[in-house]
């Protein structure tokens, strides 16, 4: 039986990637850094995926196992697995790379047969390439030669909303997900891969479509909702002002995408965007603004879900006012329990908005001016309560 090691036994790990790998007949082990989570999975050996759509579906996932990151067992599994996947959050890929470098060294020394597939399933642009870079940085010449020959690092885009568990989860390991999912991987199809994967020659357009029209629009909804004192995405989409803002954001972003990628027709992107809004408004899903808005410093970075579409729409010569407002509202996001949001507000206070927009978002010129104006206007409206 083919073996898969998945790093990150969280919502996406259990509720999406681990589940699909299991369905494809893999022997699946999760590696995680939380001892209680690892013990729970190792003891129960199974969990349930609760899919929320028009018809709620409860899918049991049986016969899984778990280990702690960095343990001997984890390294051995890294050496012997056919597929290695991650959903840990992009900033945690270093810890994964450490284990993979050691695991692949052992695989090389043991002369094990077969190629290895590595896919980082993170919300980031080409996260597998980043993981690859970090593994190679730990490899000597002979290991690098082995990696070149035997390990395929494949970039991917993953899309499945895994919201808050409240109201649906009954057991500790239950994971709650929307019924929709999309897993797009760059490369030629790998025999024995999960059925749910879409293989593409160039991931770039798909990655941007998802990052801009799903994650960007989601972030735009969350940040404006936060300013209006709204706690969930469902409530945000029910607010006509926020819904219109999200639609404008998607419209500008779609224009940028269509201009950049000849394969995308504007009408198709509009249909995709509308489907995304329906997913956001799924009445069975309770998704908190704090989850969607988490880590605003990462989300404000160049190429990310806000500044990425801003640049694309601007390059197409389009109106970018909704995206500028979304960037401005992200700058105003505060949450005492979110370290990145606290750091963002600290920097705004200490350095001023101009420096933050220059350094965090990498903006200059007209777009820089536009975001600063939008930020000041939003702040004034906040004083009058928007
Ligand atoms: N929740 C969602 O709707 C979606 C999330 N994503 C992406 O998937 C990734 C994971 O997100 P979630 O599953 O929502 O987060 P989560 O917080 O539920 O799960 C992440 C898991 O990774 C573990 N972890 C952290 N560092 C680790 C390491 N070095 N090695 C092994 N495990 C480690 C954590 O303990 C946690 O169990 C993120 O990059 C996110 O952007 C992508 C698509 C959908
Ligand atoms: O997981 P991140 O990068 O913090 O961003 C949250 C986004 O990711 C998702 O959870 C999945 O794409 C969306 O629901 C949301 O827009």
Description of the structure:
This protein is of the alpha/beta class and 386 residues long. It folds into 2 domains: 3-201, 3-Layer(aba) Sandwich (Rossmann fold); 205-383, N-(1-d-carboxylethyl)-l-norvaline Dehydrogenase, domain 2 (Orthogonal Bundle). The chain contains 17 helices and 12 strands. It has helices at residues 11-23, 35-44, 72-80, 93-110, 127-136, 141-150, 204-227, 233-238, 240-260, 266-280, 289-293, 296-299, 307-315, 321-331, 339-351, 353-361, 365-383; strands at 3-7, 27-32, 46-52, 57-62, 65-68, 83-86, 116-120, 151-153, 156-159, 175-178, 182-186, 197-200. A 6-stranded parallel sheet has the order 5-2-1-6-7-8, sandwiched between helices. Strand 1, helix 1 and strand 2 (27-32) form a beta-alpha-beta unit. Residues 7-13, 31-34, 37, 69, 87-90, 92, 95-96, 122-123, 158, 160-162 line the site of 1,4-dihydronicotinamide adenine dinucleotide. The site of 6-O-phosphono-beta-D-fructofuranose (F6P) has 9 residues, from helix 7.
Low-confidence stretches: none
- Count of DSSP strands: 12
Label the CATH architecture of the largest domain: 3-Layer(aba) Sandwich
* Domain unit count: 2
What general outline do the C-alpha atoms trace?
globular
Strand content: 5-15%
Helix share bin: 40-55%
CATH fold descriptor of the largest domain: Rossmann fold
Structural class given helices, strands, pairing? Answer: alpha/beta
**What distance lies between the first and last C-alpha atoms, to the nearest angstrom?**
58 Å
Radius of gyration: 21 Å
According to CATH, the homologous superfamily of the largest domain is: NAD(P)-binding Rossmann-like Domain
* Strand line-up in the sheet with most strands: 5-2-1-6-7-8
Average residue pLDDT: 96
What is the CATH top level name of the largest domain? Alpha Beta
Count helical runs.
Answer: 17
- State the order of secondary-structure elements, H for helix, E for strand: EHEHEEEHEHEHHEEEEEHHHHHHHHHHH
By oligomeric state, this entry counts as single chain
């Amino acid at each position: 039986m083919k073996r898969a090691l998945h790093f990150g036994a969280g919502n996406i790990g259990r509720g999406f990637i681990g589940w699909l790998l299991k369905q494809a007949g893999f022997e699946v082990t999760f590696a995680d850094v939380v001892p209680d989570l690892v013990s729970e999975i190792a003891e129960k050996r199974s969990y349930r995926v609760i899919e929320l759509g028009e018809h709620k579906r409860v899918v049991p996932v049986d016969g899984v196992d778990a280990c702690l990151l960095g343990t001997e067992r984890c390294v051995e599994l890294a050496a012997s697995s056919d597929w290695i996947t991650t959903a840990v959050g992009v900033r945690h890929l270093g810890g994964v790379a450490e284990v993979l470098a050691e695991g692949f060294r052992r695989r090389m020394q043991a002369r094990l047969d077969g190629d290895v597939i590595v896919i980082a399933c993170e919300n980031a642009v080409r996260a597998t390439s980043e993981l690859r870079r970090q593994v190679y940085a730990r490899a000597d010449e002979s290991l690098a030669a082995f990696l070149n020959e035997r390990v395929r690092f494949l970039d991917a885009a993953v899309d499945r909303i895994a919201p808050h568990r409240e109201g649906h989860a009954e057991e500790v390991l239950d994971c709650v997900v929307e019924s929709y999912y999309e897993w797009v991987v760059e490369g030629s199809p790998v025999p024995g891969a999960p059925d749910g994967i879409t293989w593409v020659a160039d991931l770039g357009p798909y990655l941007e479509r998802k990052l801009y029209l799903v994650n960007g629009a989601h972030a735009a909804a969350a940040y404006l909702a936060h300013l209006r004192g709204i706690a969930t995405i469902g409530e945000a989409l029910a607010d006509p002002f926020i819904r219109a803002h999200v639609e404008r954001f998607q419209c500008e972003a779609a224009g940028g995408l269509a201009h950049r990628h000849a394969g995308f027709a504007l009408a198709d992107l509009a249909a995709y965007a509308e489907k995304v809004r329906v997913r956001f408004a799924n009445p069975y899903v309770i998704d908190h603004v704090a989850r969607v808005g988490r880590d605003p410093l990462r989300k404000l970075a160049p190429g990310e879900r806000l500044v990425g579409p801003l640049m694309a729409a601007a390059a197409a010569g389009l109106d970018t006012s909704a995206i500028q407002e979304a960037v401005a509202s992200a700058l105003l996001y505060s949450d005492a329990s979110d370290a990145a949001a606290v750091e963002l507000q600290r920097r705004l206070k200490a350095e001023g908005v101009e420096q933050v927009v220059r350094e965090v978002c990498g903006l200059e010129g007209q777009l820089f001016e536009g975001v600063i104006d939008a930020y000041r206007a939003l702040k004034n409206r906040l004083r009058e309560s928007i």
